[in-house]
Amino acid sequence: MTLTQLEYILAVADTGSFSHAARQCHVTQPTLSMQIQKLEEELGVILFDRTKQPIRPTSVGEEVLQQARLVVKGSQHLKEIVDDAKGSLRGELRIGIIPTLAPYLLPLFLKKIKDAHSRLHLTFEELQTEVMIEKIRNHSLDLGIVVTPIDDLNIANHVLFYEPFNVYLSKGHPLLTQKTLDEKDLSSEDVLLLNEGHCFREQSLSLCRNKKVPAAMERSFSFESGSLETLKKLVDQGESFTLLPYLAAMDVQDKKRLRPFSDPVPTREVSLVHGPHFQRKALLKALIETIKRNLPEGLSSTRSKNQLKIDNPLGYLK
């Protein structure tokens, strides 16, 4: 049994095809097929059901693949530990990031980290918190940028910044007469929200009390979106209000329709998280420092006394 053979069976499992796996591994299909057959003969089991398309692992193949991933990942960790000790920031890094941060945070630091570490290949995946944490647990991701806390003792977190919330109001909205807003001013019946599964949706609902909406302000439709940009455009068209994190509010054109909260300001804690398998300490430090160094004014890695941290209701994952 060789590490190469394990990499080949993982490629077949991931692509569902011997030909695609061969291209991914940069070998000919006969070479890949022969090595997998040798492994099956050595183990005395059939790993793949070749009668199905796409090709699927057998039941015992699933168990072998699960262990193979750990072995291959372990070998990669050995190389990463050595690189880290040498101060060499290179290789692949897979990072998850929640949708309410991705389009606003990544442009602030991505080019800087790429320019500083050209041999480092970064892959970002936009995911909701629950999916991301599961991928970190099963080693499909190295790191995640999420709202914390996460109730999992195996997930380590490093606070990047505290991000205050703003209220974005439609033209002519009665609340525009106020310079700052309180939670009691907002109604859960009136706010435009993200879809289920977004932690920011739950945080928004926790701030918007069931204040009665005047009949003149009642909406004639209900709408939930997976994008803060869609919610902003609906508000621009005259649909009530939505809540925006600080970064998402930075590019709002008509800033006269943004209202801050009065003290204590509702704030979310944004952190870089990883599982116990992640050992690249030098790389972790470089990434954290680069992100913090490129944050705009208004964001800080320490929470001020006038900020109220709104915990992530979806962060308590078992």
Commentary on this structure:
The longest helix is centred in the first third of the chain and has 28 residues, at 59-86. Strands 3, 4, 5, 6, 7, 8, 9, 10, 11 and 12 form a 10-stranded mixed sheet that branches. The protein has a two-stranded antiparallel ribbon with strand order 1-2. It is an alpha/beta fold and 318 residues long. It is built from 10 helices and 12 strands. It comes from Bdellovibrio bacteriovorus (strain ATCC 15356 / DSM 50701 / NCIMB 9529 / HD100).
Keywords for this entry:
318 residues; alpha/beta; Arc Repressor Mutant, subunit A; D-Maltodextrin-Binding Protein, domain 2; 2 domains; ten-stranded mixed β-sheet; 12 strands; 39% helix; elongated; transcription regulation; DNA-binding transcription factor activity; LysR_subst-bd; WH-like_DNA-bd_sf
The helicity comes to 25-40%
Structure class = alpha/beta
What is the gyration radius calculated from CA atoms? 24 Å
Question: pLDDT under 50 segments (min length 5)?
Answer: 210-221, 313-318
CATH topology of the largest domain: D-Maltodextrin-Binding Protein, domain 2
- Alpha-carbon distance between the two ends: 36 Å
Order of helices and strands: HHHEEHEHEHEEEHEHEHEEHE
Structurally, the number of domains stands at: 2
- Average the pLDDT over all residues and give the rounded result: 85
Number of strands: 12
Count of DSSP H/I helices: 10
Which range does the strand content fall in? 15-25%
Major sheet attributes: 10 strands, mixed
Overall 3D geometry? elongated
- From the 3D coordinates, which CATH architecture of the largest domain would you assign? 3-Layer(aba) Sandwich
CATH class of the largest domain: Alpha Beta
GO molecular function: DNA binding; DNA-binding transcription factor activity
Domain HTH lysR-type: 1-58
InterPro entries: LysR_HTH_N, LysR_subst-bd, WH-like_DNA-bd_sf, WH_DNA-bd_sf
Protein name: Transcriptional regulator, LysR family
